[in-house]
Every structure is written in structure tokens, then in C-alpha cells.
Amino acid sequence: MFIFVAMTDNQEIVSLTFFEYPKWNRWWAFNQMQLAMAPLQQTSGLKFYKLMGTGGGFGFSLRPDLKTYALLLVWKSGAFAKNYTESEIYQRFNQQCKSNFTYWMHCIQAHGSWNGVQPFTVKEVKAEGPVMVITRARVKFHKILRFLSFVPKSSRSAEAADGLLYTKGIGEWPAIEQATFSYWQSQQKMEAFAYQSDHREIIQKVKKEGWYKEELFARFIPASLPESDTDR
């Protein structure tokens, strides 16, 4: 059973939208990695934002998915987030894309940093249904080849994971600044994958050999967005 936690107007809420573009608009979408910075900075109620490219394979992938881009937004409160689809930044992308889908989330665990800051406010809520996970890392330059050598094994391991509903590699720079979003049936199934042999082996090598300059791990539960003003 999928359990969604309703957000009140004064609670932080996180949105992750995947926009898919037709061939004739993919160059436009790529350029937005820079051109959309100013509109994002002017969007009311944003605490943190990242516009990222995505990987073309299963989960993390070195092959780019040139048709899909991800927009991660951390809203100061539901009051700001509930009008997201009416905002200039959403309309900017929605008018050019072929389709899009937004995951609304509430952070229940986080450690580490993203560009020197912790973007998510943790709310002590127990995960009783599906969970989402974002893992992000900045790879040390001299460790890139070592990191890349384990990518295929990691992807194969995730592809066979029980309870994995969806996963997508997201990131700011190929190979150097990478993240993965995953959506699981339950916290128990996510943890079963995290502690199984192949994945655990990679994590142990990461820590022992110091691959990352910076890393972040965050867990979320699905959140239902408060009604927008237009819905009332």
C-alpha cells in the first residue's frame, strides 16, 4: 500500500521533475542548464535547486540521455510549492517538453552535503510505505577511472534488485558530479539491496580508497502536495 504524507503550508517539500523533450528541442533543453539559472534564482520560496542531465542506461550510466533532464527543487514550504505548475520556471520547460512527471517528497533522513550545504530539512517521520533515495557524490579527479570501472557492476546489481520501482542517474557533470534517484516499494527492500554483497563491496571500496571529495545521502517518503489556490 502506498502511503502519502500530506504536507501543510509551512512544511518544507522537495520536488523532482523529469522533463522529456522531442528531438527538435533537445539543444534548447541542454542550453537551459545555464540559461535557466536566473529564472530559478528569482522563483519565490526556493531554498535549493539543481537542473541536471540524466543517464541513458539503467540507474547510473555514463551514456547521457539527451532527451531527459531533471529539475530538483527544495521549497521552503508547501505554500510556495503548491503553485509550482503555475510558476514561470515550470512553464518555461513544460511548453517545450513532450512530457514530464514530478515526484513530491518529504525528507526523513539526510547526511553529507551538496556543494557545501545540506539542502534538506529532516522531518522525523517513519517510512511505512514506499521510499525514495537520492545519493550524490563529487568524485576526486584522480579517482575517476577507478570509479568508472565499477559503474557496470553497480548498474547490474541495481537492475536485479527486488522492490526497485524506478531509478535514474542524474548529475551536473558527467563522471565527476553524479547522483542517482531511486524509488522503492519499501525501506526494507531498499536496505536489503544496500546491504547485499555486490553493493556493499562497492561502498566499502569507496570508503577505504577515498573516491569522493563530497557526498550526500538522503531518504524521502512520498508527499501529497497541498491544494493550489486554483483548486479551491
From TrEMBL:
Oxidoreductase keyword on record: yes
Source organism of this protein record: Cyclobacterium jeungdonense
Protein name: Spheroidene monooxygenase
Keyword field: Monooxygenase, Oxidoreductase
Listed GO MF terms: monooxygenase activity
Origin: domain of life: Bacteria
